[in-house]
Design a protein that fits this description.
This protein is mainly β. Helix content is about 0%, strand content about 30%. It is found in: Endoplasmic reticulum membrane.
Length: about 290
């Protein structure tokens, strides 16, 4: 439910939502439907008592003249949606047009890269101008233009469909070749090419350090560990000290010594023929 409250710094009452993370809406019918034959200017004033963290403060200009305000729902059809929306990384002043195509399909057209929302607690005036004479738009905040351009170029999906589309009945010929290059059929793998050679080998120049302790384990029982006083071998089993790194191994090393590996200079990997131009590849040239 809404509450009526006079915000700090204002002398007039305003609507306040009472719960977070809920959808709120309020509607009122105009005296008569708008006929935007010559264009349209939408404008409203907004003051946020608290900065938006996840919520919208936009207006929807509803489509149906038969609509009753008490029947407002999320999916109530609208013609234009305009105003701030902020949630997480989303921060935008929406301008969305629900456009009816000649085939009767209605689709939302969203302004690409819309301006950012002012998140302070000051009063701001949001204005959207839709010009019918040159099919342009202008989004203003506090009278300053923030985004302007073409209705036909700056909305997604495009208001006007493309002049041409792929023929849905067309099929790729079975003999169609898509690869401009092909392996050279005359190429042969060199006789000395070893596909089984490993990528790395042991470093032949490496030598085991003289201090290396072959028979010394890398881990030993912790000499400082003690069996807990409440340890019960019948219930807990034989107590074993935790293992720690062998301090004798810190300087040179312990255990089986293995030389480090280095890139194999003889490694070549799997052989493949060089690519040449594909004689069956054709570039489709269209004439208009």
């Amino acid at each position: 439910m809404f509450e009526v409250e006079t915000p700090e710094g204002l002398n007039t009452p305003a609507l306040k939502v009472t719960e977070k993370a809920r959808h709120y809406g309020i509607a009122a019918k105009l005296g008569k439907p708008l006929k935007a034959v010559n264009g349209l200017v939408l404008q409203f004033e907004l003051k946020l008592a608290e900065s938006l963290t996840c919520g919208g403060a936009y207006l929807k200009y509803l489509s149906s003249g038969k609509f009753e305000a008490t029947g407002l729902k999320d999916d109530t059809p609208y013609t234009v949606m305009f105003g701030p929306d902020k949630c997480g990384s989303t921060n935008k002043v929406h301008l969305i047009l629900r456009h009816k195509a000649p085939n009767g399909k209605v689709e939302e057209k969203h302004l690409k890269t819309p301006p950012l929302v002012n998140l302070d607690k000051k009063t701001h005036v949001y204005t959207a101008v839709l010009n019918a004479d040159d099919n342009t738009y202008d989004v203003l905040i506090d009278g300053e233009s923030k985004k302007t351009g073409s209705l036909f170029e700056d909305f997604e999906p495009s208001i006007n469909p493309p002049e041409e589309i792929d023929d849905p009945k067309d099929k790729k010929p079975a003999s169609w070749v898509e690869n401009p290059k092909m392996p050279d059929p005359k190429a042969k793998k060199p006789a000395d090419w070893d596909e089984d050679a490993p990528r790395t080998i042991d470093d032949p120049d490496a030598e085991k350090p003289e201090e290396w302790l072959d028979d010394e384990p890398e881990e030993v029982d912790d000499p400082e560990a003690e069996q807990p006083e409440d340890w019960d071998e019948e219930e807990d089993g034989e107590w074993e000290a935790p293992r720690v790194a062998n301090p004798k191994c810190t300087e040179a090393g312990c255990g089986e010594w293995k030389p480090p590996t280095i890139p194999n200079p003889a490694y070549k990997g799997k052989w493949s023929a060089d690519l040449i131009d594909n004689p069956d590849y054709k570039v489709l040239i269209r004439s208009f």
